[in-house]
């Protein structure tokens, strides 16, 4: 365990945009870091006792802090407004000028297995459009688009021209499928927030459905069996099927990823 010190700025750390606020930090001994030639990742949780509520006000970040010889002190520059902290009516100062601070410093063991889950919501090109020609001549149950990559994963759109399940014979069915070349761990899941669309080629309203699903090895595809009715699809005045050409699209709005350590 490396030696650490709780650092309190009662009137705020002006060098860290903390003017007017109570600032709290943890500092690790620089000589220890130099001798060890290392950096330390730590979770920090700061406490301030509130005597009125007999509880601790707690502040914690969602990410770990990276200590090294170049950055030996981390924390929060704006914990509480100074006026709030110093007003005895609020309970942080009591029995005169008495107050209590605390901090938990947790350094995860590098030998432990861990997972880092994150979701990406902005992509360079979030849409993939598939043009299907000669829809009325397609005889197979299911057709799959070319592979495309969004959010670090490879995907296909699947279309069932004659419908699938309860949509068979009355609706076109459409699904998003995690490509078979993607490798997932047995328990791993990929979250997707996306829109599936049948595009209107007359520039009227598209037909779209929102996908909010977890993909896995056991459930690699998600979609809609009743995506668009044959009545709407075959009505030439509605603009979904033009010269026997159908255009479908997916717009990815969020895709999760999981990193495993070690």
TrEMBL record:
- Which Gene3D superfamilies does this one have? Apoptosis, Tumor Necrosis Factor Receptor Associated Protein 2, Chain A
Q: Which InterPro entries match?
A: MATH/TRAF_dom, TRAF-like
What PROSITE patterns does the record tag this protein with? MATH
Residue stretches making up the MATH domain: 1-105, 125-252
Q: Which Pfam families match?
A: MATH_2 (PF22486)
Tell me the leader sequence span: none
Task: Give the protein's recorded name.
Answer: MATH domain-containing protein
Q: Which organism is it from?
A: Brassica oleracea var. oleracea
